Amino acid sequence: MFKVNCLNKIANVGLDLFTDNYQMVDNFNDANAVLVRSSSIHDLELPHSLDAIARAGAGVNNIPLDKCAERGIVVFNTPGANANGVKEMVIAALIIAARNIVGGVNWVNSCGADPEVAKLVEKNKSKFSGTEVKGKKLGVIGLGATGVLVANAANKLEMEVYGYDPFISVDAAWKLSKFIKHTKALEEIFRNCDFITVHIPLSDSTKGMFNKDTFAIMKDGVKILNFSRDTLVIDEDMIEALKSGKVHRYVTDFPNPNVCGVEGVITIPHLGASTSESEDNCAVMAVRQIMDYMENGNIKNSVNFPNCDMGICTQAGRIAIFHKNIPNMISQFTATFARENINITDMTNKSKGQWAYSLLDIVPPSTDEIVKSLRAIDGVLKVRVIK
Ligand SMILES: NC(=O)c1ccc[n+]([C@@H]2O[C@H](COP(=O)([O-])OP(=O)(O)OC[C@H]3O[C@@H](n4cnc5c(N)ncnc54)[C@H](O)[C@@H]3O)[C@@H](O)[C@H]2O)c1
Ligand SMILES: O=C(O)CC[C@@H](O)C(=O)O
Q1: Which stretches are transmembrane (predicted)?
Q2: Is 83-94+131-267 a CATH 3.40.50.720 domain?
Q3: Would you give the DSSP letter of residue 272?
Q4: Is the ipTM here above 0.85?
Q5: Residue nearest to atom 23 of ligand 1 (CA)
């Protein structure tokens, strides 16, 4: 029986996939597998029982990836599962940034039930006029699952779209419309675009990408959309840029005390992926990945360990070994099994950066003694007996 804990609300269509072999538990400390959306796991003690964490979403900056890797805890995410939800919100944000819809709606609401409201509207509406997006230049930073959809949709709105992603995947490149102009230097986006939208993960290298130096080279009156993470932007520099008119509007999905209520900032309560479709897609993908890992040791869409697929185990035993990506590991594993006259019928070894994963089908199954010997090998992080 595997114990599963949800740190956030996860859509039922996903949770309903769990069979009788899974038990939902309220306590994180009892879990073998955890499902999470945006809750932070950084300050939680990781229990010894924990084998896997699935982020029902894209961003994994709320999870201590290295700490998990060192402990042999596989962290999954659900690439692309909420990208359409975010894309639709970004298109709304583009229009919200171009037209003073938020200002206008707030003003009308402030008129209360004034019997003259219709007259007032016609008298005052010129205060809330805006521009159209057609023909304007949009820079899309990050051409992954979301960025590609945003770029293609904006192209259909007849915007001139520039895309920047030095690490673009082959898959994403195939999906990108031929009308998107490929930019090799981020500076080109900053210098030329009327609207800039960012769709990249938060990392040490992307943190603070929008700062006083980058604002300085942007066009006056640029509109910036942030549906990625708040700390990609240095708030103090953004507030200065808004005051000076360098930035006209900043639409962000990440309200924080620095930017809430600041003139020119439009804050949305992290709703990019909050659609029933995105929530269902993420939950189903996350649960399927967890189940395949817990039952078969297969890894798909992990952010800290390599993909590995040996299908359903039909042999007497299957064992998973997490280890450092260093020489001479495999020979020590095979020698351990050989000593006990255990036959390896199938085997996969994959690595990702400094970490590696070996999955072995064996006949007959493993014993406690063998597991103990494997764990004692220098460089082994964790051994999981799957069968
Ligand atoms: N607001 C929301 O609800 C919401 C929903 C989904 C994702 N997100 C955020 O958006 C981010 C992107 O989501 P996604 O689904 O498109 O992820 P993704 O992994 O499919 O795409 C990210 C892209 O960014 C590119 N990239 C990485 N570093 C870069 C850099 N320095 N410059 C340019 N490109 C860079 C990668 O090559 C990749 O193509 C997530 O990491 C998450 O933080 C927010
Ligand atoms: O779960 C959410 O609502 C937000 C998801 C989003 O920020 C992500 O990175 O996928």
Answers
A1: none
A2: yes
A3: T
A4: yes
A5: 144
